[in-house]
Structures are given as structure tokens and as C-alpha cells.
Amino acid sequence: MTAGGAGPPVRVTGVTTLPDRRLLLVHAHPDDESIGTGATMAHYAAAGAHVTLVTCTLGEEGEIHVPELAGLAAAEADQLGGYRIAELASACAALGVTDHRFLGGAGRYRDSGMMGMATNDHPRAFWRAGLDAAAGHLLQVIREVRPQVVITYDPNGFYGHPDHIQAHRVAMRGVELAAAEGIAPAKVYWTAMPRSVLDAGLEAFSESSDNPFAGISDVAELPFGTPDAQIAARIDATDQHAAKEAAMRAHATQIPANSWLYSIAGNFGAEFMGVEYFTLAVGEKGPGNGPYGWEDDLFAGVSPDAADRAPVAAAGLR
Q1: pLDDT tens for residues 61-74?
Q2: Where along this sequence does the record place binding of Zn(2+) (predicted)?
Q3: Which of 61, 283, 287, 289 is most buried when burial is the number of CB atoms within 10 A of its CB?
């Protein structure tokens, strides 16, 4: 296993040595963890939970935003994936996450590129991976860590990238296999963005010179967005917004220093960087608040030994 920070690899020796609360995230590429769930990861790590990140590829097909590193690109030296291992280690250190693994080991699965590209057909493309084989690698992590909560993407991979879709499939199949062994997590969440937040963004950024919604007049035009009533959890980790931004900056090849993400963070502050939302795909919703009863804790209603009692049925998780 690759550690998040400097030093020798970290090896978890057994669930009895871990904290009572254990969170597992399954992401497609380095940087996905920071952009989509960085605040949540930092929040739970700071609170003493054990946070395990599984990244499915090295992100070899990513666009390089550092001109002097352009030679690392897939069409050149094809060394970007190795470089991004170091970026991910720095990002994890910024988030306080020390347990990071690549699915099946670094380099087993390759970044597939965007949907419809020739890279989808690379022999090692994650998009082509056998589902049970890939899920078997994840099952090994679940056996070791016994997470009560798992986070991944929805069936569309949040926005349709083939590796995100495959990460969803692998995560859900891994949970199904874990349930068959009696070690399933109590809850599985999918990353989400409420329609109300997107609506507010359309209005707030309409006059901005760095408008990420330029040309869009209705949130229905976006490839993502969830009705507020379907959101299950809102994690307020505004106190960790600086950690999330530091983690994003660690992914310098992928997120340029002048990215609209940083510009908007500067204008709208901690809430933009520090609040993240999720739908609940598996398990029972815990106590919440507000008009829709949104949870403010992903472990709401979960007992410390939930992963050992296998509360999730094996059927219907694919």
C-alpha cells in the first residue's frame, strides 16, 4: 500500500487496530478525491476516523497544465501516471489521509480517457477491466479495513467519464461480494450536487468573468445535478477548506494555478470549498435536519461494529 505522505508504506494489520469509524472512498483518477470529496476526507481524518482511499488508475491520459512537463504526456514519454503518484501522495498528506492504495497495485489499470476515445480500447484500460477481477481487488481492502461507510460515484460516474462509471460498478460489486462474506459496509454514498446549489451557482456566477456555467441557462442542461429531496447528506467541512485547496494545488499537472475553481473559492470562500453532498445508495438514513432531513454525518445511525454484522443484503447492489 502506498502511504499518503512521506516515509515507508503503511500497512493496516487488522481491523481491531483501527478507529471505530472507518470510511472507504473509491475514485477513478488522482485529483478526483480532492475535487469531489477532499473536504469530507479531511473532516473525518481530523476527527480521528480511518480514511482509506482507493484510486483505480494513475490518470495517464490527463491533460497537462505545466508546460515544462508536457513531455510526460501519453503521446510523448507516457510518464504522466508515475508523476501523478507523487501528486496524489502530496494531496493525501494535505488532507491528513495516510491510507491510500491503487486498485490492484499502481499501474494495474490504465486511465481510459474520455468516452469514445481510442484509449478506451487499450489492453489495460480500466473501462475494459473484468468486473469481478477488479472488484476482487477492492474486496481485499474491505476485508482488511472493514469500513462502515463507502463513497463512490453514481451509475453515470457523476458526469459520464468511463473510468468513473467503472469505478461505480467496481465499488458496488465489491460491496456485493463483501455482503456475501458478511462484512458489508452499513452505508454506500454517491457523490452528488443538489439542483438548488447549481441554480444558485448559475445566478451567482452569471456576471463573473470566470464563469464555469458560461452558455448554460438551465441546470437541466448539465450532465449532473440531483433534486434536493434525493440528497441524503450535507457534510459541512468548511473548517477544512484550506486543506482541500492545498490538496487540489498538489495536483498541479491537472488543475492549473489560474483555474476557475480557485477564483471562485476566493470569491465565495469556505462554503464553496468545504461543503459536499451525497445521495445514499445502500443502507438506512440516519437522523438529519432541515426540510429534507439531510444528514450532517455519514456515520449517522451507524454503530461501531456495523461492518462486522453485515447489515447490507447481497441482492440489488450492482
Answers
A1: 999 999 999 999 99
A2: 29, 32, 164
A3: 61
Give the residue-averaged pLDDT of 174-190.
98
Tell me how far apart the alpha carbons of residues 53 and 185 are, in angstroms, rounded to a whole number: 15
Of all residues in the chain, the percent with pLDDT exceeding 70 is: 84
pLDDT digits (tens, 9 = 90+) for 93-129: 999 999 999 999 999 999 999 999 999 999 999 999 9
Strand bridging mode 2-3 / 149-152: unpaired
Question: 164 a known binding residue?
Answer: yes
The answer on whether 32 is annotated among ligand-binding residues is yes
Q: Are 11 and 135 in contact (CB under 8 A)?
A: no
Q: What are phi and psi of 18, to 5 degrees?
A: -95, 160
All structural domains of the chain: 19-302 (3.40.50.10320)
Is 18 in a helix, a strand, or coil?
coil
Q: What does DSSP say about strands 2-3 and 275-282: parallel, antiparallel, or unpaired?
A: unpaired
What dihedral do alpha carbons 23, 105, 65, 89 form, nearest 10°? 50
- Report d(CA 215, CA 206) in Å as an integer: 10
The residues facing 185 across adjacent strands are none
Q: Which three cell numbers stand for residue 99?
A: 491510507
Q: Is residue 123 helix, strand or coil?
A: coil
CA angle 26, 27, 29 (to 5 degrees): 150
Torsion of CA 301, 183, 164, 8, to 10 degrees: 100
With beta carbons less than 8 A apart as the criterion, state whether 37 and 152 touch: no
48 vs 262: which has the higher pLDDT:
48
Is the distance from CB of 241 to CB of 274 less than 8 angstroms?
Answer: yes
Residue 29 known to bind ligand: yes
